[in-house]
Specification:
Elements (H helix, E strand, L loop, with lengths): L35 E5 L2 E5 L38 E3 L2 E3 L5 H12 L2 H5 L3 H11 L6 H13 L2 E5 L5 E7 L3 E14 L9 E14 L2 E8 L19 H8 L24
Antiparallel strand pairs: 1-2, 3-4, 5-7, 6-7, 7-8, 8-9
Length: 270
């Protein structure tokens, strides 16, 4: 059982500084109205005016296109984090000490961006403290959330429409690559318009601490170019096409889908 949460730390306590510059931060390149920066905990989306070339990185070239009728194999991890055994601030936690548990822990964290912005200060800090190895301070978390909300930003990320790859796994450390679409951009409820699909691709490093997987780093990894489908504004990519785009080693979630669902935020729709 994870120990009870103490009161939030003061600004000068552990984790008071934002994450350092070590490693290349997670980036997604997409067309937006203006440059929107969404930063929470150690996660950073860089959304700029430039769209990345629609091709796979050189060291992860696409495999031969499978037959449209083929039933692509699926991995054991679920995008819905069905392996979670507890919840913190309403979000899944408590994952198995396995590669599958690490995939679900990182996927659920990456999909939590909009939920975190809309939490109370204490709920946000409580989740960050539980899910991140070295979380920012309450002050930093609140400032990031306030900046995103003031900018009219929102994000609804969909691991079930993406894929993952386990790069390394041991009982104490795991490295997982993720590829998924997010509905990101201005939120109509906050005065924005025209939220669109954005493609995110990067590497999560997790450590086993406090009887759970925690995110230690989010990096750009080996991906110098963002892989996008033929129509980057269409978030639903056929299952077989995802694996053909990404190449060897990538897996579909056990609950991967080709269907849309209402966005987590009621004001965002695909």
């Amino acid at each position: 059982m994870y120990p009870p949460m103490p009161p939030p730390p003061s600004p000068g306590a552990r984790g008071s500084a934002p994450p350092g510059p070590a490693g290349r931060r997670w980036k997604a390149v997409a067309l937006v109205t203006g440059a929107v920066a969404l930063a929470l905990a150690v996660l950073a989306f860089a959304l700029t005016r430039e769209r990345a070339p629609e091709q796979a990185p050189a060291d992860h070239a696409p495999s031969a296109s499978p037959s449209p009728s083929a039933d692509p194999p699926r991995g054991e991890a679920t995008a819905a984090a069905r392996g979670a055994t507890r919840r913190v601030s309403g979000l899944p936690r408590g994952f198995a000490r396995t590669a599958t548990g690490a995939v679900e822990a990182s996927a659920s964290y990456l999909a939590s961006i909009d939920d975190l912005y809309r939490m109370t200060s204490f709920e946000r800090w409580r989740y960050a403290r539980d899910a991140v190895v070295d979380p920012p301070s309450v002050t930093t978390l609140d400032a990031d959330a306030a900046a995103a909300l003031a900018d009219g930003s929102a994000a609804d990320c969909r691991p079930d429409l993406g894929a993952y790859r386990v790069v390394a796994s041991s009982p104490d450390r795991a490295v997982v690559d993720h590829w998924m679409p997010c509905l990101a951009g201005p939120d109509p409820a906050l005065g924005g318009t025209e939220a669109r699909a954005r493609w995110l691709m990067g590497r999560a490093v997790l450590k086993w601490e406090g009887a759970d997987w925690r995110v230690a780093e989010l990096l750009r990894g080996p991906f110098d170019q963002l892989v996008t489908p033929a129509d980057p504004d269409q978030p639903v990519v056929p299952l077989a096409e995802r694996l053909a785009l990404l190449g060897a080693g990538w897996e579909l979630y056990a609950d991967a889908t080709e269907r849309l669902r209402p966005a987590a935020s009621p004001d965002l729709t695909w």
